[in-house]
Each structure stands twice: as structure tokens, then as C-alpha cells.
Amino acid sequence: MIEINNLSKSYYVAENGNFFSYFKFTKKKREIKALNNINLKIEKGETVGLIGMNGAGKSTLIKLITGILYPSKGEIKVFGHDPTKHRLSNNYRLTAVFGQRCQLRWDISVFDSYKLLQKIYKVSDNDFQKRVTEIVKVLALNEFLHQPVRTLSLGQKMRAELGAAFIHDPELILLDEPTIGLDILSKESILDFIKKIKEEGNKTIILTTHDVSDIQEVCNRVIVLDKGNVIIDDLISNIEDLCETDNKVIITNSKNSFVGIDILSQYNYKIEGNIITIFNIDKKTLPKLLEVIFAKNDIREIKIENAEFKDVLKKIYQKNQLQNL
Q: Which positions fall inside the ABC transporter domain (predicted)?
């Protein structure tokens, strides 16, 4: 579906100089690297979350995939073709939704905008009717389907935008911050729609966002960019497994102290009065450990706290930054 080899993208901006530099025909420029020698392969049917700080290169990568931008170095192929040379044909097979840009016509209704897109993408009347019916149902567009786009709230407009992206039944879906600034109900509606598309299994989705919980909820793979470099590329399930091992078990005793806990010498733990906290324990060994502690102590409470998904990602991110110093 998407193959990226040694891809780099740089921008050049004029440097500020002294007063006289403003009268020169040529100005000194400095290079800003948006992407730096990245390699990725995304297969058909994957749902990939793309995250990173502002300026990490997320939007640049999306624009390179669509063919809006040309690479400075390296190669990118979408559907087996260079997207800059096959942009028109690729546009019939992909869609892109940018959270702060609108493809719907401002002064006509949502439905009329959809009809316009039907003509642009040459969608048959029968297919158009089936898709609009499904889109309206899943995204709850019925109450404002025939209102001018300019009258819609941000959440309504974003739902309508997402619906517009699916009029031509694309194979590749690029979503750049689709939930930015939305209220909780609009956000939930959009995420539910993305999950429904994912469940069909024949669509490839790339979702960029700052909200890690969105990635965990709808994606099966996460890619983290930092200063134009790929620093994490892993399955969501693998990160979630790390959440379970990056844990702490809190054991509260009825008495003020514990006895017979020599077994804890092989673990990282701390004791504070009648509370033991054990860190980073494999859950396979936990039953045996608890059996030993229970045998000689009157345990009142056991609590297991796993690290949150975003915290594990943050640790991996920080570790990679230190390695690259």
C-alpha cells in the first residue's frame, strides 16, 4: 500500500539579517528538516496512529503521501506509484481530512456538497445513495444534512467533513487531527465511525493526533515522530503488554509489619509501615509470591496498578531522546 525508503523533506527559509540585507536580491537561507531519512511500510488493512510534538513532521508526511509535496530525498510509493506523478489517479483511491481545512462548500447544504463530490469522483447514483444513507446514519447527520455548511457548529462540520471523505469509497484514509477542538460527543461519534471503517478490514487508515487515547482506541499500530525521525514503530498490543509489566502491586497488611517476606529480596520493592509496594512484577510470578506472603500475614487489601499507555509511550520516547544525544 505505502512504501517509504530513506525519505527526507526539507524547507528553506530566509534568515533575518541587518537593515541592508532587506535590499539584497538573494538572501541567505537556512534548512529546516521536516523529515529525516525515514523508512516505513504500511500494509492494506492497517490502522496506524501517527503522533509527535508540534513540528515533528506528521502533517508533512501526510502531504507527501497525498502527493501535495515532493520529497527532498528518497522515495515514496502509494499503490505502487510515485504520488506526485500519479496524484490524479491516486485521488480516486484515497481521501484526506485535515482538521482545520474544509472541503465542503460554505454556502450550500451538506447534501449538495456531497452531490458535487459525487460528480467529481464519478460515483453512480445507486452507490451514492447507499453511501450517503450509511454516512448519515453512523455520523448522525440527519438533523443538519440540508443546512448550509456555514451554519454548522465545529463538531457538526467535522462530522460532515468526515462523511464527505467517504463518498467515493476510498481505499486509503488519511485523517490529520480530525477530533481537534471537538466536544466529547462529536469526538465520540467520529471515533466510532473510524472504528466501524476499521472493522470492514479492507481500508487502510492513518490517523494523526496529539491525543494518545484516540490512538489506543482505534489503531493497531503506532508510529511516533520526533524532529523528523521515527523513534517508535510498534503494535499497540506490544505497548499495552509493556503497560502490564510496568506496574506496581500494593499490599496492605492488617498488622503494623510483615513477616516471612524474604522472597521479596529478588524484587524491587519498598515497605512503609503495613504497606508493601512491589514494582515491575511479572504477573505470571505474582500468584506464587502472594501465596508466600498470605501464608504468614493477615492481608487486608491487594491493589494492582498498571502504567497508562501514554506513560509507557512517554518513557520510550524519552529513552530514545537520551540515546540520540
A: 2-252
Q: What is the pTM of this model?
A: 0.80
Nearest Cα neighbor of 65 from 102, 95, 29, 20 is: 95
* Residue type at position 175: L
Residue 167's nearest CA partner among 111, 214, 206 is 111
Give the rounded distance of the alpha carbon of 158 from its chain centre. 17
How many angstroms separate the CA atoms of 75 and 4, rounded? 6
Q: Tens digits of per-residue pLDDT, 236-249?
A: 888 887 777 778 88
Which stretches of the chain are DSSP H helices? 58-66, 87-91, 110-121, 125-139, 154-164, 184-200, 212-218, 236-245, 286-296, 309-323
Task: Output DSSP code: residue 256.
Answer: S
Q: Which residues contact 111 (CB under 8 A, 6 or more apart)?
A: 132, 145, 146
The answer to whether 270 touches 276, Cβ cutoff 8 Å, is: yes
User: Pairing mode, if any, of strands 299-306 and 247-253?
Assistant: antiparallel
pLDDT, tens digit (0-9, with 9 covering 90-100), for 29-55? 788 888 999 999 999 999 999 988 888
